[in-house]
Amino acid sequence: MPVITTTILGYARLGRTYSAQLTATGSMPITWFITDGNLPTGLSLNQSTGIISGTPVEGGSFTFTIVATNIVGASAPVTLTIEAGQFLAIITPSPLPNGIMNTAYTPLTFQADGLDDSFVYTWSWTAQAGSSFPPGLTLNGTTGVLSGTPTAIGTYNVNVTITGGGTSTTAPFTITVGAPPVITSAPNLGGGLSRPFSTVLQASGTQPITWAMTTEPIPSADIHLSSAGVVSWLNPVLGTYTFTVVATNVFGASVPVQFTLLITTPSIIDVSLDDGIVGVLYSHTFTAGGDAPFTWSQPSGSLPPGLSFDPETATLSGDPTLSGIYTFSIRVDNIGGYAEEEFSLTIYARPIITTMVLNSGNENVYYSQTLLANGTTPISWSILPPAGDETGLPPGTSLTGATISSTPTAQGVYKFTVQAENITGPSYADTRQFTISIGPEGAPIITTGSPLYAIRGIPYSLTLEATSDTAILWSLAGGSALPDALVLTDDVISGTPTVAGVYNFTIIAENADGSDSRIFTMIVADPPIITTTALPDGTTRTAYSATLSATGDTPISWQIMSISGSETGLPHGLNLNTNTGEIYGTPTIDGTYTFTVKATNEAGFDTAQFVVTIISVGGTFINGKEIGNLFIAGKEVSEAFVGGVRIY
Q1: Which residues are within 8 A (CB) of 110 and not within 5 positions of it... i.e. 6 or more apart?
Q2: In 222-359, which ranges are continuous DSSP H helix?
Q3: How many CB atoms are located within 10 Å of the residue 160 CB?
Q4: Helix %, strand %, coil % for the chain, to 5?
Q5: 599 and 583 share one domain
Q6: Considering 370, 485, 574, 632, which has the largest number of Cβ atoms within 10 A of its Cβ?
Q7: For residues 21-32, average pLDDT
Q8: Nearest CA to 303 among 279, 327, 282?
Q9: How far apart are CA 345 and CA 325, in angstroms?
Q10: DSSP code per residue over 549-565
Q11: Contacting residues for 633 by C-beta, under 8 A, at least 6 apart
Q12: Per the domain annotation, does 634 fall within a domain?
């Protein structure tokens, strides 16, 4: 929302034209309102521009409150005052002329009205809150002349005061200090033969910046430079071309820069790439113009996850796994040079309907439920023509956007198929069949969603919910069964599930006006249980491999817990594969090692402690590298200790 930055307004001289600009930060457009108080008679506020203007005809001190609004909301109110009368007033308009960094500022003399020749007046200035003085500029207190050489770019807000004859007045001013553009683009450009060339030149400095070519290309070529800085050539010809460019803004012109454009062979013929779809195999082979053989590479940028570039075949291929817009460059080299082009590849996600079940409804009672789907938006929704035993939507309801709504006019069970489609097209649309039961007015409607989630061995409790003005009797439909060890008591499903799996059952809610039923799916997840009871011992200098095992839902990740108590951690030279649970490597130091392993999945974790003994088979290792048998004074020894620690 806006934040009003105006803190002071200038003096309004009776009979003289007055203009003051209110300012605020925030998203445009901004609309201005006076919520309390009044402007001097003869002045008015332009609500669109924030300019207070007019010719005051009544003197006095006028205090009023302003508020600025935009699409986000309203600012905090700010109270301002305009003094009006025949008194002393600064009449120099704001903003002041711009300054150019490191260039002498054209001296500006502040002007005031209502001066009395019998008095001596002095000038002073202060920086407004949150701002500062423009470095390098000074205000002469006797003459009111602003001069100097500004040294820093910025917009500066100051208050200027004139004092004399026992009175003073203050007016706010803004001065902007800028600098001519500095061209930052590298002077060497490269393109390919017979392939349209285009690049955008860059420069620092205050926008807008206008570009111009000050010398024609040498040798003569149909190279163009737009005012926006776009260098283009529709049909490049082999050769080296030079031209000079200048960038200009409101503060002046840049130093001219000479650019060199090298048009070489080869060229990348491809101009754009086809879009891709998550989960759908993608393949594109790039082609080059010029003399073979070619060497391909992908030097910069990010490929879509799941895709890779094969430099041998110049083929980008794979199975995209994540939607988005990905930008990367492709380069081709040959004996004549190289060409490098930037490409953009959009990967879309096809829609997948995530709504599993729809609520029931009551006859003559307004119904509304919104369908949900994953995938690239926007997603369009439709009801397919009834097929087989389908009936279509309940009478009186309709699908608008993703919402099924309105007032059902007849009881019954209505079956229909919904389709979700997005930019990926009808071939990748998703469909799902739904059923809506419309019961009599006043009958309960089960609102608890499905699926339900529980964890084997963990106490579970869920209170079922339904709309009803009277008491509800809950029950399991005939033939339905809850997961092992769970029971339905009144409206609560509870217990401690003992067997993991996916279970389907039907719950009925009934009151005096009717009943509703819903098929629920409950997923009982299975936390890991490490089934490995012991690991084999190993020997130094011999490859070791042992894979841990566990029951439970996959995937299971493995890790070595932090050392605690008397534990030592894994034997030196061994590692744990966190995905497969394999302990592998070549032990380097003998000894008995104790460590704890943790197995984790989405349902929980399990830990187990193991002991592995590594037996020495001779040889000496330093920093994990064998240096041969150990000899001291020409004799082979079987053990060696350093600082009381056995090293061999």
Answers
A1: 90, 92, 123, 139, 144, 145, 146, 160, 162
A2: none
A3: 23
A4: 0, 50, 50
A5: yes
A6: 574
A7: 94
A8: 327
A9: 6
A10: -EESSSP-EEEEPPP-T
A11: none
A12: no
Beta strand spans in 236-302 (E): 239-249, 252-253, 257-264, 267-268, 276-277, 282-285, 288-289, 295-301
Distance, CA of 54 to chain centre? 47
The answer on 312 and 293 residing in a single domain is yes
Phi, psi of 114, rounded to the nearest 5 degrees: 85, 20
Looking at the structure, do residues 119 and 72 belong to the same domain, yes or no? no
Q: Classify 460 as helix, strand or coil.
A: strand
Residues 460 and 497: beta-carbon distance below 8 Å: yes
Count of the separate structural domains present in the chain: 7
**Hey, what amino acid is at 525?**
A
47-51: long-range contacts, CB 8 A cutoff, minimum separation 24? 49/21, 50/21, 50/22, 50/23, 50/24, 51/19, 51/20, 51/21, 51/22
Q: Same structural domain for residues 377 and 407?
A: yes
pLDDT digit string (tens) for 206-252? Answer: 889 999 999 999 999 999 999 999 999 988 888 899 999 999 999 99
Quick check: 44 and 12 in contact, CB under 8 A?
no
CA 449-454-455 angle, to 5 degrees, is 165
Per residue in 243-285, pLDDT (tens digit) is 999 999 999 999 999 999 988 778 898 889 999 999 999 999 9
Please, what is the end-to-end C-alpha distance for the chain in angstroms?
Answer: 73
Bridge partners (DSSP) of residue 239 are 263
d(CA 518, CA 235): 68
Indicate whether 477 and 516 sit together in one domain.
Answer: yes
Task: Look at residues 130, 149, 178 and tell me which one is the last residue of a structural domain.
Answer: 178
Of 448, 475, 456, nearest to 523 by C-alpha is 456
Whether residue 70 contacts residue 27, with contact meaning beta carbons closer than 8 Å, is answered with yes
Domain containing residue 189: 182-264
Evaluate whether residue 162 is within a structural domain.
yes
d(CA 380, CA 357): 19
Instruction: Say if residue 315 is in the same domain as residue 239.
Output: no
563 within a domain of the structure (yes/no):
yes
Q: Is residue 642 part of a domain?
A: no
Could you tell me which of 591, 528, 592, 589 has the C-alpha nearest to residue 559? 528
Closest C-alpha among 625, 638, 563, 555 to residue 596: 563
Q: Which residues of 622-641 are buried (b: 16+ CB within 10 A; e: fewer)?
A: eeeeeeeebeeeeeeeeeee
- Look at the alpha carbons of 483, 489, 492, 497 in this order and tell me if their dihedral is positive or negative: negative
Query: What b/e readout covers 93-123, taking b as 16+ CB neighbours within 10 angstroms?
Result: ebebeebbbeeebeebebebebeeeeeebeb
Reported as a single tens digit per residue, the pLDDT across 554-591 is 999 999 999 989 999 999 999 999 999 999 999 999 99
Looking at the structure, tell me whether residues 251 and 304 fall in a common domain.
no
Asked which of 118, 153, 178 is the last residue of a domain, the reply is 178
Q: Which CATH number characterizes residue 38's domain?
A: 2.60.40.10
Give the C-alpha separation, 326 to 329, whole Å. 10
Based on DSSP, count helices (H) and strands (E) in the chain, helices before strands. Answer: 0, 70
Asked if 343 and 268 count as a contact pair (C-beta separation under 8 A), the reply is no
Q: 323: helix, coil or strand?
A: coil
Mean pLDDT of 639-647: 49
Determine phi and psi for 575, rounding to 5 degrees.
-135, 165
